[in-house]
Amino acid sequence: MADKSVRVLAAELKNFLSAHEEEDFVSAAAQPAAAGFSRVTGQEDNTPAQSQTSPAAPVLHQEVSPSPKRPSRQMGEVSQPPQDTLTVFFGQAAPQHPQPITVEKPQPVVSAPVCPPAQAPVGGVMTTEEKTAALAELADTIKNCSRCPLGDTRLNAVPGEGNVNARLMFVGEGPGYDEDRQGRPFVGRAGQLLDKMIAAMGLKREEVFIANIAKCHPMVDPQHPEKHGNDRAPNAQEIACCRKYLEKQISIIMPEIVVALGGVSAKALIADAKSLGALRGKFYTLSLDNVSLPRPVKILATFHPAALLRNPGWKKDAWADLQMVMAHMGLKAPSK
């Protein structure tokens, strides 16, 4: 009789503990962690989710990460909150009772929510052929883009051009009059000066990649694209619409260094940027909104060649910036 009472009490205790553990699990799963951070370390975690299912493991840690932490920004869209990161811990299995116990009421089965796995970083290791094909496909998309009003007034979109394996990438603000007609970046007077700057670094234009943060010509008077002196800097909405194209190009090419030409591109690509003067003379780690890079890329800000044409006295400072890039890349200026 005493033995039977012990078994009944043991069964009731097991049922109580089982139900209690399930309640704790559901409560933990219903409380999302901060997006993009591990509930364990409190640090950013971009590692793709891994699952261990071996029953022999005493403790099982399953983490499911979201898609890239910051959603792409499109004109007219309202930012959506990032997906949650769920971290669930399963405790050690309780030791088995030496005698079999019959449980009359089956316990409910509770499973954790299933989230989509994190996307692999865009622009991983690609062959030259894969890079060429990816950039060509992206260029076709840009040429047919009409996401903002610039697509209605341009003559030609200007995706960018250069070496798909470039170690160095230059990013300006937007195409001008000459670029709009040729569909190529930096081909006017500012482009001729940029060619000289590249040559002074011991490189050729064909060895670097040149692009703009805006892919179509921003005009003061869009109704008269034939007018000279009709250029302007792209506004915030235009930059937001084109941003994903530039970021995809960077993720495909994966240069060592990006040189932002002018304050518009510098403030768009460097976080917490205040002014070009405050940004110059220092390398920053490039952080993108729409893609994750498989390795760090540095970015440095300097003057736009058009600004140097208006203010030749700034060329000395621009050359000092480019010498920082040369030292980092191990380049030497050609002998005169």
Describe this structure in words.
The protein has helices spanning 2-29, 128-143, 150-153, 177-182, 189-200, 236-253, 263-269, 276-279, 305-310, 315-329, and strands at residues 60-64, 86-90, 161-162, 168-172, 209-212, 257-261, 284-285, 298-302. It has 336 residues and is an alpha/beta fold. It is built from ten helices and eight strands. 35% of the residues lie in helices and 10% in strands. The protein is globular and about 95 Å long.
How many individual β-strands? Answer: 8
- Return Rg in Å: 28 Å
Mean pLDDT: 75
Proportion in β-strands: 5-15%
What is the helical fraction, as a range of percent?
Answer: 25-40%
The helix/strand order is HEEHHEEHHEHEHHEEHH
Unreliable spans: 17-123
Spatial order of the strands in the main sheet? 3-5-4-6-8-7
**Largest sheet descriptor:** 6 strands, mixed
The structure class reads alpha/beta
Assembly form of the protein: single chain
What is the general shape? globular
Task: Count up the helices.
Answer: 10
Distance between the termini: 106 Å
